[in-house]
Structure formats: structure tokens, C-alpha cells
Amino acid sequence: MPSLPAIPSALTAFAITVVLSFVLGLELHGYRRSQGEGIGFGTTRTLTLVGATGYVLWLLDGPAPRGLYLAGLAALVIWLGINLAQRGRQPEPPTGDNGSALLPAIIALLAYALGPMVLTQPDWLVAAVLIVAILMLAEKPMIRRFSDAVPISEGVTLAKFLILAGLVLPLLPDTQIPGLVDITYAKVWLAVVVISAISYLGYLAHTYFFPRAGTLLTGALGGVYSSTAATVVLARQARTDAAVAAQAPAAVTLATAMMYVRLWIVIVALGHWAEAIRLALPFGLLLAGTLAVTYWLWRRAPAATPATKAARLGPSNPLDLPVAFLFAALFVLFAAITVFVTQHFGAGGLRVLSFMVGLTDIDPFVLALLAGHFDVTEANIISAILIATASNNLLKAGYAAALSRQRSMWPAAAWLALTLLLSLVWAYGVN
């Protein structure tokens, strides 16, 4: 039986271009209908033909300088300019939103570029561009609400951070900091970038995507940002708000559960695979136990009216530059202290130091401990990390009980204190 002839690759690419252009036209038409606009320029048929024209001209043009394709682009730009000028002479819409007049022109240019993209670029890039275009058309209300909610200061802070992460990080020398073996300037700032970025995701989610999050969700998002800060906020509000007090114990333990997830992800992101594998089991057991206690506390919580005020994590922005520089300073400081302690007091001194540091901020200590080359074994480092997280849980247990002054918080505080004992047993068992 004769085999079917293979479909030419040019025909396949042409079909993909036509389909994608057609999809863009459908999305633009749906956007106009949702905005109550007329058909205007850039119908589904028009965009499909624009995409097909761009493909054919690119294919016929041969090698650079591609005069046919560029001539077609120039004609399209002139056509779009005439259309925009005609729309500019029309009365302003009641909403005063003339920015949507540019959308058909932008989508038309994108449709014209789809053919060359399909022919020359990887499939994932073509799909990514199309997905972004569709989301920008389909999610205008959500994007508008988000844009209105984000203050200018957030954009300025994020821009500064992107400059430091994208420009300063590549420029930092990968040379050792004097006195700190295996810890370089680039490693320190990479840790700052990773920990700040993960914390910022939790901050954005709580501040803008879930501004009125329930108590339990506040605990989960707070654990991504800072489990200690979340515990303090929840305990304080539980003292004065009965609705928060009902769910605060479960939210506090959930914040600690997210701490284990967050810290393990940071360790993996910085490339400490061996330590991450060794920590997977103890962290996994502590996470499972904490989630089980969270579920039990949530089920036993009495029904309550909605909280009078949504719990907030506070105004601190984890991408604020002073916070980033403080983290870098603590990273170097803890690394220097660890070098001194391990050289003079060995593994026993490191365990004591880990317990003391856990009562402050464990992130820079843990990352410095993993990045450096100290006079202790890998097992000692794993036990030190467990001790630091355990003493941090003890600190949160004290905050939860003392600041809330609620008997309902005692089971949560008791579990956090119990994790100290469990972690210590594991920590001494690995040596």
C-alpha cells in the first residue's frame, strides 16, 4: 500500500500562522464586544489575512535585506497610521479611554510578525507571545484593578531591585571575601536576590492579589514572606478580634509549615543539592506534622463572625533596598561568626550558635552556613540548620502565647515548642 505523502513544512508553518492570526482576531473581537465598541479596523478576517501576507512576503523575500517583507511592513504601518488619525478625529468615548485605539494596531503588527516567528523561532517563544497577547486582551478588568492598586513607590522599588539583580550581580567578582573560605561577593548577592524574590512573591500576593485574605490564608502567605512576622501579626490581632482568634492558632502553625517549604526551596535554588536532599526527610516530616496540627486546629475552631479587620503583615517591603543590604550584611556577619566559632569551639559551639541565631533571623545564617567551608562535617551543618529552625519555632511559640493572651493559642504554641524537641532529637541523631 503506497504511503501518504508528507505534508510540506512550509504548508504546516503557513497553517499555524493562519490559525494563530485567526485566534488573535477572535480575541480582539471578543475584547471589543466586552467594551461595547464597534467592529472597526482589525476584524478576524483582516488579521488572518495580515498574518498570511506577512508569512508569504517573508517566504518569497529570500535572504536579507528582505525588501518585500519590509515594504509590506511599511505599507501596514501607513495603513494603521491613517486609521488612527481617522479615529482621533472622532468624538472621545464617554469613558475617556483612548488607549484602546492602539490595541488593533498593536495586534495587527503582531499578526504580521507571526509568520517569520513561526519560521525562525522556537515553538515555546511563539506560544509565549500569543499567550501574553491573549491575556492582555482577555483580562483587562483584572489588570486595571491591579494597576490602580499598585502605588508608584512599588514600581520604583522593583525597578531598583531589577537594576541591582540584573546589572550589579553580573558585575560582582566571584572572588573570596577575605577571611571567609568559599564565600564570594557574587554568592552573597545571589542569596540576597533569591531570598528577596521569594519573599516578595508572598508580599505581593497578600498585599495586592488577596488584600482581604482570611485568617488562614494570611498565615499561608505570611509564611512565604516571614513566618515570624505573620505569627506576631496574627497573635496581636487575635487578642482584640474574636473572629481572628478563632482561626489564628491554625494560621500560626500554617505559617510555620510554609517556612519549611520556603527555606527548602531557597536551598535548592542556590544549588545546595546535597544538603537539600539530606534535609528533605526531616523537613518533610516536620511539614507533615505541622500541616496535620493545622488541620486539627482548623476543624476544632468555633464558628465565628467575619473578622472586623483583615490581618496585615505590615508595611515592610522585602524588595526595599535597605532590607536587601541588611540581609547581605547579616550574611557576611553570620559567616564570620561561624568561622570563629567552628575554629575555636567546633561542632558543639556551632550547635549553641545555631540555637541563639534561631531567636533572630535564620535565613542569612542558614545560607551563610551552606555557602561557606567551615571546620565541621556536613552532618554538623544539617544539625545546625535543624536547631536554628527549631529555636525559631520556640520564639514564635512565645510570641503566639504572650501576644494573643488566648487559651485557644496554647495548642499551637505547644506544637511549635514540641518541634524544638523533635528537631533536636533528629539533629543529634545525624551526628
Distance between the first and last residues' Cα: 70 Å
How many separate structural domains?
2
Report helical residue fraction. over 70%
Please tell me the overall pLDDT.
Answer: 81
Number of strands: 0
Structural class, by secondary structure, is: mainly alpha
Gyration radius over CA: 29 Å
| Number of H- or I-type helical stretches | 15
Largest sheet composition: none
Instruction: State which percent range the strand residues make up.
Output: under 5%
Order of helices and strands: HHHHHHHHHHHHHHH
- How would you sum up the global shape? elongated
| Uncertain regions spanning at least 5 consecutive residues | 94-99
Annotate the secondary structure layout.
Blueprint: H1 9-34, H2 44-61, H3 67-88, H4 102-120, H5 123-138, H6 140-149, H7 152-171, H8 185-209, H9 215-240, H10 242-269, H11 273-300, H12 321-357, H13 362-371, H14 378-404, H15 410-429
Question: In summary, what is this structure?
Answer:
The chain is mostly helical and 431 residues long. Helices cover 77% and strands 0% of the residues. The protein has 15 helices and no strands.
What labels describe this entry?
431 residues, mainly alpha, 2 domains, elongated
Walk me through this protein's architecture:
With 431 residues, this protein is mostly helical. The chain has 2 domains: 9-146, no CATH class; 152-429, no CATH class. It is 77% helix and 0% strand. Helix 2 packs antiparallel against helix 3 and helix 8 packs across helix 12.
